[in-house]
Amino acid sequence: MKDQNCGYCMRGELLEQFGIYICDLSVSSLILFKEQSHPGRCIVAYKDHVSEIVNISDEERDAFFADVARAAKAIHAAFHPDKVNYGAYGDTGCHLHMHLVPKYKDGFEWGGVFEMNPDKVHLSDAEYQEMIEKIKSNL
User: Fold this and answer.
1) What is the pLDDT of residues 38-61, one digit of tens each?
2) Residue ranges per structural domain of the chain
């Protein structure tokens, strides 16, 4: 089930407004968040357009969280954050997804709640590609 207005479902220009597709995982997609105030920030988006974790089976939920854990392990290995914060939102974009936000003790917003899109750090295409390769090599 896909929503024609959803970047996670349709990818292309809708996704490119905020993220870059990295790869598919078992029941989700891994996406690099373009705003990189938190180096390595990614999104794990469920494969279908469902709003809530309660809208999928127990088996699918377990597989989704296994994908989240796999992505988090890759982020830890690639970027060595002090902590990864996990956020599940979607008040307006009702597609089940999880933000993985690496936090660094000497970095932006350590000790506080992260801003959804601080719009402070954007990278070149080559820098995004380098980050993606680091993540993929650790999956």
Assistant:
1) 999 999 999 999 999 999 999 999
2) 7-137
Buried residues in 71-109 as b, exposed as e (16+ CB within 10 A): bbebbbebbebeebeeeeeeeebebbbbbbbbbbeeebe
Other CB atoms within a 10 A radius of the CB of residue 64 amount to 23
* CATH architecture, domain 7-137: 2-Layer Sandwich (3.30)
d(CA 4, CA 33): 21
Residue 1, pLDDT > 80, answer no
User: For all residues of the chain together, what is the average pLDDT?
Assistant: 95
**Angle formed by the axes of helices 58-79 and 125-137, nearest 10°:** 110
Q: What is the DSSP string of 36-93?
A: -SSTT-EEEEESS--S-GGGS-HHHHHHHHHHHHHHHHHHHHHH--SEEEEE---SSS
